[in-house]
Amino acid sequence: MSPAVDKVYAVEIAAAPERVWHEITRRDRRCRPMFGTVLVSDLVPGAALRYRSTKGKHTFVAGEVLEVEAPRRLVHTFTFPNLPDAPTRVTWTLEPSAKGTRLTVTHERLEPGSRTLKAVDGSWPGILELYRQEVETGTVGLGTRMKLALMGAMSFMLPRSLRTDVVEAHLERHPPRLA
Amino acid sequence: MLDRLRAGPCTTGALAEAFPDLTRFAVMQHLTVLVAADLVLVQREGRERWNHLNAVPIQRLHDRWVSRYEAFWALGLDELRRRAERPASVPRAPRPGARGTRRAAPTPSQPPRRHP
After folding, report:
1. In this complex, is the C-beta atom of B54 within 8 Å of any C-beta atom belonging to chain A?
2. In angstroms, what separates the C-alpha of B62 from chain A's closest C-alpha?
3. Predicted-complex ipTM score
4. pTM of the model
5. Among A48, A45, A46, A42, which Cα is nearest to A62's?
6. Touching check for B58 and chain A: CB below 8 Å?
7. For residue B100, what are the CA distances in angstroms to A100, A142, B97?
8. Which of B58, B42, B47, B45 is nearest to B9 (CA)?
9. Do B38 and A10 touch (CB under 8 A)?
10. Among A7, A64, A128, A161, which is disulfide-ready with A82 (CB 3.0 to 4.6 Å)?
């Protein structure tokens, strides 16, 4: 058994896989389920993938696209640029189901005890539930919208290490590739 | 069983060992119910069956209970905004039917009380 941990999360969404795929890969506006960040990527293998703040000033998640198979499968590497943990791998799988779509996220190569593991394990259940809400109802709950507004207002408190220019300089030296 | 899986994914064999009071069959039965409720996800690797806790339904349950208080919260915030936006110079109109003169404007000998 490898020392790394794999985590799996799944949710049933009452919509076609194409609709769910659209929401996961949309780049025309911020993804409320993803803490209101904007996905920046060409979504082709080898392309960079970033989750940034609305104006692009901060970068919260960085990775590289490994596989794209619309509307079934998206695989990319995943790092928090402000944490020293090794890059991990995220696989989004969309399968047609009786209800509509079964969306599964598999997060692999997480180091036991790492802050990355703690952060993603605490976040994915909420993210998947919010994608369900976003796709099924066209919005997310009021509490989430209030939290997003609050997070936006507090953005001036974010550490320098999350600034996009700092992150990109760091990724230049440490590309988000799997070991 | 979910508490055990919260610590990390577990093979069915290891899970059965963690509950020595239960037969392997009983553990399997429990797992079947948890899988049906989407609380446990199964991944097969060779002959091993890895059971993962799926926290998404728990999240939804949590949201459903917490969202009951969201509307209350929003009302509170709206009231706060209303109060904050009210011009400071405009005195509060006396409520119709307010009791007596207890809340009448302060007399000159009695300066307005200020909060520290």
Report:
1. yes
2. 10
3. 0.72
4. 0.78
5. A48
6. yes
7. 64, 41, 9
8. B42
9. yes
10. A161
